[in-house]
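Minutes, project check-in

Agenda point 3 was the complex the collaborators sent over. CS summarized: two entities, 792 residues total, and the question is how they sit relative to each other. Sequences were read into the notes so everyone works from the same version.
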Amino acid sequence: MNSAINKCIKYEISVPSKEEMFMFPVPKLCSIERKLSRLRCSDEERQRLMASHAPFGELFTDHMVVAEYTKAEGWHDFAVTALEPFSCHPATSVFHYGQAIFEGLKAYSQPDGSLAAFRVEKNAERFIASAQRMAMPPLPKEMFLASIQALVETDRKWVPAGFGESLYLRPFMIARESLLGTRPSSVYTFSVIACPVGNYFPNGLSPVSVWVSTDYVRAVRGGTGEAKCAGNYAASFLAQQQAREQGCDQVVWLDAIELKAIEEMGGMNLYFVFSENGKKKVVTPAPSGALLKGVTRDTLLTLAGDCGYHVEERRIELDEWRDGCANGRISEVFACGTAAVITPVGRVKSARGEFAINDGKSGEVTMLLREKLLRIQHGLDADPYSWRVPLVGVGD
Amino acid sequence: MNSAINKCIKYEISVPSKEEMFMFPVPKLCSIERKLSRLRCSDEERQRLMASHAPFGELFTDHMVVAEYTKAEGWHDFAVTALEPFSCHPATSVFHYGQAIFEGLKAYSQPDGSLAAFRVEKNAERFIASAQRMAMPPLPKEMFLASIQALVETDRKWVPAGFGESLYLRPFMIARESLLGTRPSSVYTFSVIACPVGNYFPNGLSPVSVWVSTDYVRAVRGGTGEAKCAGNYAASFLAQQQAREQGCDQVVWLDAIELKAIEEMGGMNLYFVFSENGKKKVVTPAPSGALLKGVTRDTLLTLAGDCGYHVEERRIELDEWRDGCANGRISEVFACGTAAVITPVGRVKSARGEFAINDGKSGEVTMLLREKLLRIQHGLDADPYSWRVPLVGVGD
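CS then shared the predicted structure for the full assembly.
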């Protein structure tokens, strides 16, 4: 199928023999140009880099996907190229008016040596929703998946094989028009880059401590809280710094209107485990119009239920959290997200005081759900949900 | 002082003979490298471009200022260079986590042929405040002014001479580290670019119509509303599109908590003119923790007072606006900002109905303040406030 010349050949997405392997239709001939103009890492160099325990998000694979959008042509020129810098006019719209969205997902090694992603459709859908909120052009779902697949196939040697390890994929879109008029850009770049990753938190699964911010808020309904947009993150860094100054690892956000209800932790969603009469119930804050509805959060709504726990989405206030830890009703709290999977929360500090959860230790529900989720992602457990999305076969 | 070779010479900021010319101390030897590696526009080409009535922010001068920040070196390598693209790794922090702030100010031709800016210190101060909110390294005030001055001096031929015309200056700072870890960048670029501009609104001073958004909000206290950061603008575009769909020119924001109090219009502040017993009072929304405190807004607090109007900063709700227009208490409403100076508002539309202000016509207070402000900026009226900041002398 491929030409002998590896420099600038037509790259055809390998369509799975069974269409139902994919959760959404892939165009039969979704062509992505392959432009490999730069030398790749040697096998030795790549192995050395992958063994170097680089911090999360600082080691990149050899390639990237790029595509351009203009009003006249729509999305076009999808290509896998060497990882190369963008050339940006100083007036490039993203520098001034911040139209930038992204997604985060992972490719996991499977026991048979194939590679699979997890619920890519959810990421593709949220990427569309984020684009709409930021007045950016939505990227068709099938091009989102085809881009992920093309990059993982090209850089398949960069996917670590260990349990809990993966290739972190970062699809993103930025405004590229050069103008200072305050209006949406008419030119955009879509790109996917990738990083081999181990565990997100350097200290492994030791529970994190959190600072509940009342000086800063993350988002408010009617704002951009439900979009995975760049500005939400820049807005959070000062609160994160304050958390560090308070001796805590992460910041916890309250609702912007009353400063009472728990929303999120840093860039992750939160789950609260209640124990009543020997029964366990897991509770996560209900969507408020400001909450980022994480894919892992959504996955756990189903998975926790199937593990025998009662599951609830509802409002939960800081007072209930504190009282629940004091009277033993709340036995565990954990945060969840694609990058860090599931992370226990051990200690809570706010302007009104400090308290521990489960004596600052990881709890059994947290550990069980984490293990269960990772086993499905790595193909070690059955996947009755069809969450795994095959990307690259054994022989590909 | 300058070497004969124009290619890469040391460029020393010309320090004004009287230090009090500047509102804040300029280092005696604040050196900015001058690297002019590309051909500039010919005089004819520049004149043709300046006469072409390019839309706001789409025609740029020949040069730019750039400087770099690293944790080890702090701010360094200030230079005036040809306007050239930045080379950005796809993981550049500003693309993913949105740390980006900017300012907008203008250089005005003076009657004697010299060039002056207006209240630059306010922009420098807000740039520091914006940086602090976004966990970015503040740029010292003196480097902010020196950069403005160096660029205007280099591109002085690009400053239009007409009344109401100016050179729009855009200082901005972006995060430049290549990483996907969610933390503040440790590398930043500061830059200043410039655009010759006429009137901001293409239809001149014909009053604008506004759509009061209740679906979207701009900011909430504890958020980033007081910072001039890129993310605030991206967040506003969808509401702006909605305004267009409603047949309006601009969006008006309500407070995020109650959706009642008026905050801003698009990227500009608002003023309401009340008439009572033949006396005029101008009222602008009080800082709420979410409002961007504009330099023009601040200037008018003083200028309107000195023009004999009573001035108030207070909460004003949409209901009061509507009722005031109905019963004749509110005779004019205008928006103000650096780019568009002062723009009358003629018509207001919301989900609850529509009403006109002053029969949709410009009012006398609006026109008087606009003329007065422009005359001070252009050096045609006395400046008892020391607002004008000389940048380039006649003989320079």
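Noted in discussion: Chain B has a mean pLDDT of 90.
Follow-up: revisit at the next meeting once the mutant set is ready.
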